[in-house]
Specification:
Layout lengths: L2 H19 L3 E3 L1 E2 L13 H4 L8 E4 L12 E7 L3 E9 L21 E7 L7 E7 L4 E7 L2 E3 L7 E7 L2 E9 L13 E11 L2 E6 L15 E4 L10 E13 L4 E14 L4 E6 L28 H4 L30 E5 L6 E10 L4 E10 L2 E7 L5 E7 L2 E12 L3 E12 L5 E12 L5 E13 L2 H4 L7 E13 L4 E10 L16 E11 L7 E15 L5 E14 L4 E9 L3 E3 L10 E3 L2 E9 L6 E12 L5 E12 L4 E22 L2 E23 L2 E22 L5 E3 L9 E17 L2 E15 L6 H10 L3 E9 L2 E2 H7 L1
Parallel strand pairs: 1-14, 2-4
Antiparallel strand pairs: 3-13, 4-5, 5-11, 6-7, 6-12, 7-8, 8-9, 10-11, 12-13, 12-14, 15-16, 15-44, 15-45, 16-17, 17-19, 18-21, 19-20, 20-23, 21-22, 23-24, 24-25, 25-26, 26-27, 27-28, 28-29, 29-30, 30-31, 31-32, 32-35, 33-34, 35-36, 36-37, 37-38, 38-39, 39-40, 40-41, 40-42, 42-43, 43-44
């Protein structure tokens, strides 16, 4: 090659290295002007502010400079109260800019501009603020563990469409951020632009984010020039009032509630959140199912207090917030001729407080405390008619403590403690854990693991349930090593759970008393090809051995392929082989017993069409064949969505499962454990609708109908060796037929920053019988003939910033 061309290539390489290997720096400009957030950016201060440009593609073709026809220019101003961001987003096809209107914190199909701010410039946590081309705001707290969109801040933004693209203007008060007390501020910052239309789905960042590296936050640019600002008082009051009217077939009830939540910035690092009078009446309904498993159904958390800014509390997976205010832990003691006439399904939350934050030196601290009320069951004597009450859950204090020290930007050591204290002669529990997550400086390799230890102080009621152990303890430990960068990645993991490892008082765990080994190899493409924007092929092997018996509890080989095509269709397929006979130690419902599980092979495929287009569809198929005569599982899931306009969309999802000759526990017969061979069908319909009146006012509809049955056709007795022997003499009706209906129609208006008026109409019903009914129309009729409950509620929440009150005064 001629020297001239070699010199050119070397020069381009050096330019590329300098561009992508160094952090960009932007100078913020102080403004004495009053900046009006109107999307016009016509104040004099904007004209002389430094420009952040030369964006670089983040996805799909990582590292490609932005084209001239999508040029993006960002400027930053500041004053004594806030930082201001303006962005001019050029587009050679402005009439094609996606602008779907959605609820707050929902992206939809829309172009988006965002700013990511780290006031301590430590690569630990971002405060991210997004604005869509439709003017919808989204905000979140971000760590390498993910983005928490339950966090909400008070900030202002405005969007203007132009003949050359669109313009964004933002005002972010200092009260919404965390930063040091230094006179000269140095912040980590990045800007991101997302472009969505048709087959086009591209993201660009101002400072290059290399996707070959597993960490994103540490790849931010630098913001300088902000001097002599003061942290404002971070005190927010959120008073609310709610009115409910409830009616069912037996009664009607009217309820009026009022209360207040408080957010207080204790200092630059820590924030206190408190619920003085809880009200969770408008949270999303739970998806009830026919649960024939030996474990409880795990529900999503829908209460804002327990979902907002809870990154620290999720460390170690020891905190399952639905325990707080969940079902009582005991059953009442019944005498002869007594029946339980009222058994509450949940306990009432009296109050809850959490303190969380992270210091400049990377120490994250989280403390959460909640108290639930004493709960009673009502028992009636059927002969005398007398009633009495019995405590089924005492006054309970729940506490979580987390200390998370981060260092070298993306490594951490964490201590977690959860404590459950029940008043009186009831079960208490404590869990402590030490976690570590160590990454190389280049974020290419990771060593992580944990050691968790639990103690339980039991009472006589639980002695029988826990094998005669009034007080017991257990532990769990795990060690992982992984390569986290490049095309080829791997992970090796081993763990051990002791027989009495139990975190279920404030956490959730289903399986213990085993040791396991896991290995994973992954190949992925870094940049798009002619066919795929992204592709990942994963192979993994897992083996679990039960400690007491040495029997195989679980074993599999999996091969998983996931890909996104150049037209932005998503494809996933999986082959899973369970090559060894296994034993289930939980299905028998008796400690020490187990049941045989045959070998099986499973295949899975999914196609998810590009949802940028008005019509979107998805389909999943799943089939599992067991090494047992005529025992199979078939599942199919389908969904369609049509976006009629940027304001109006409808979607429908359908899931069908058919379990043929499934085997499971159905009951006890004296000392025998009875299993049944049964056929099962599960049908789940889910319908949603959205109409956005403005970017702050929406109507939403959610309807769900679920039906499932289990029809037994042969009974067995479980033998001591884990195998089943026929039991033709057992004749009890253990069939199940279950119907569940939910309907929510919701109006929401964000009438002021972080302040909302909401109106909810809800009805629901559940019907469960031993009579199997396979007619869809009959099942629908049965569930609507059941006790249909109707609720109409109105709630007003108003967000008050103490600084605004002070300025007005």
């Amino acid at each position: 090659m001629p020297k001239f061309y070699s010199s050119i290539l070397l020069f381009l390489f050096l330019i590329n290295f300098c561009t992508y290997g160094q952090k960009k720096t932007l100078q913020a400009k102080y403004t004495p002007e009053n900046i009006t957030i109107d999307g016009k950016i016509n104040e004099e201060s904007w004209k002389t502010a430094a420009i952040a440009g030369d964006f670089i593609m983040y996805e799909p073709d990582n590292g490609i400079p932005i084209s001239e026809n999508k040029k993006t220019e960002v400027k930053v101003l500041y004053d004594n109260t806030a930082v201001y961001v303006s962005a001019i987003l050029y587009d050679d096809e402005p009439n094609k800019i996606s602008r779907e209107l959605t609820n707050r914190d929902e992206f939809g199909v829309a172009d988006v501009f965002s700013v990511w701010i780290n006031g301590n410039n430590d690569g630990q946590q971002d405060f991210r603020f997004y604005v869509s081309a439709a003017g919808v705001q989204m905000d979140c707290l971000a760590t390498e563990g993910g983005e928490d969109f339950n966090w909400d801040a008070i900030w202002d933004s405005e969007v203007k469409m132009t003949d050359f693209g669109w313009v964004v203007e933002m005002k972010i008060p200092y009260a919404a951020l965390r930063f040091s007390k230094e006179a000269k501020q140095t912040w980590g910052i990045n800007f991101k632009r997302d472009v969505l239309r048709g087959a086009l789905d591209q993201s660009y960042t101002w400072n290059f984010v290399d996707t070959k590296i597993g960490a994103v936050l540490v790849q931010a640019g630098i913001l300088e020039g902000i001097d002599n600002i003061k942290t404002p008082t971070r005190l927010f009051f959120i008073p609310y009032t709610s009115a409910y009217y409830q009616q069912d077939d037996y009664s009607s009830d009217k309820t009026l509630k009022a209360g207040m939540d408080i957010k207080y910035g204790i200092n630059d690092a820590f924030t206190l959140d408190a619920i003085l009078v809880p009200d969770f009446g408008q949270t999303k309904f739970d998806n009830a199912i026919l649960n024939l498993e030996p474990f409880e159904q795990q529900f999503d958390e829908n209460r804002a207090f327990f979902t907002e800014a809870t990154d620290l509390f999720s460390k170690g997976n020891l905190f399952y917030s639905r325990r707080i205010g969940g079902a009582p832990i005991t059953e009442p003691t019944k005498q002869v001729n007594e029946v339980v006439t009222d058994y509450p399904s949940s306990t009432d939350l009296l109050n809850a407080v959490k303190v969380s934050g992270r210091t400049e030196k990377g120490l994250g601290v989280g403390v959460l405390n909640a108290i639930t009320e004493k709960t009673y069951a009502t028992i009636e004597n059927t002969v005398t008619g007398e009633t009495r009450k019995e405590v089924i859950e005492p006054l309970v204090n729940y506490n979580v403590l987390v200390l998370d020290q981060r260092f070298n930007q993306n490594s951490s050591v964490t201590f977690v403690n959860t404590n459950t204290v029940r008043n009186g002669d009831f079960r208490d529990a404590n869990v402590s854990a030490l976690l570590f997550d160590l990454n190389t400086k280049a974020n290419t390799y990771k060593l992580s693991g944990d050691f968790k230890y639990n103690t339980v102080k039991d009472n006589d009621f639980y002695t029988l349930l826990n094998n005669g152990l009034e007080n017991y303890d257990g532990f769990k430990t795990q060690l992982n090593f992984a390569k986290t960068s490049g095309k080829y990645r791997y992970l090796f993991s081993g763990k051990y759970l002791s027989e009495n490892y139990d975190v279920n008082d404030l956490g959730i765990i289903f399986v213990n008393n085993y040791h396991s080994g896991y290995g994973e190899m992954t190949y992925r493409i870094i940049n798009p090809t002619n066919t795929f924007n992204s592709l990942k092929f994963n192979q993994n092997i897992n083996v679990e051995i039960q400690n007491t018996t040495g029997k195989t509890q679980e074993t599999w080989y999996q091969a998983i392929l996931t890909a996104t095509t150049v037209k932005n269709h998503y494809i996933e397929s999986k082959l899973q082989i369970n090559p060894l006979d296994r034993f289930n130690f939980y299905e028998p419902r008796v400690y020490g017993r187990y049941v045989y599980m045959p070998k099986s092979i499973l295949g899975y495929a999914q196609f998810y069409s590009n949802d940028n287009r008005p019509f979107h569809y998805e389909i999943e198929v799943n089939a599992e064949k067991f090494d047992e005569e005529n025992r199979n599982i078939y599942k199919i899931f389908g969904g369609i969505k049509y976006r009629f306009s940027d304001k109006f969309s409808l979607s429908y999802n359908f899931q069908y499962s058919h379990l043929i000759n499934d085997r499971g526990w159905v009951g006890f017969n004296n000392d025998d454990i009875i299993f049944a061979e049964r056929n099962r069908e599960i049908v789940d319909h889910y319908f949603t609708g959205k109409y956005s009146i403005t970017n702050k006012m929406t109507l939403n509809l959610i309807a769900r109908y679920y039906w499932s049955y289990a029809e037994n056709h042969e009974f067995f007795t479980l033998q001591d060796d884990g195998f089943l022997s026929p039991n033709p003499s057992y004749s009890e009706n253990k069939n199940r037929n279950f119907n569940s209906w939910n309907f929510d129609f919701f109006y929401s208006w964000w009438f002021a920053p972080a302040s909302e008026i909401s109106i909810l109409y809800r009805n629901y019903a559940i019907e469960s019988t031993r009579l199997v009914e396979k007619s869809t129309s009959a099942n629908l009729s049965n569930v609507f003939d059941a006790n249909l409950t109707n609720i109409l509620s109105v709630s007003i929440r108003y967000y008050i910033d103490y600084n605004s009150l002070k300025r007005k005064r």
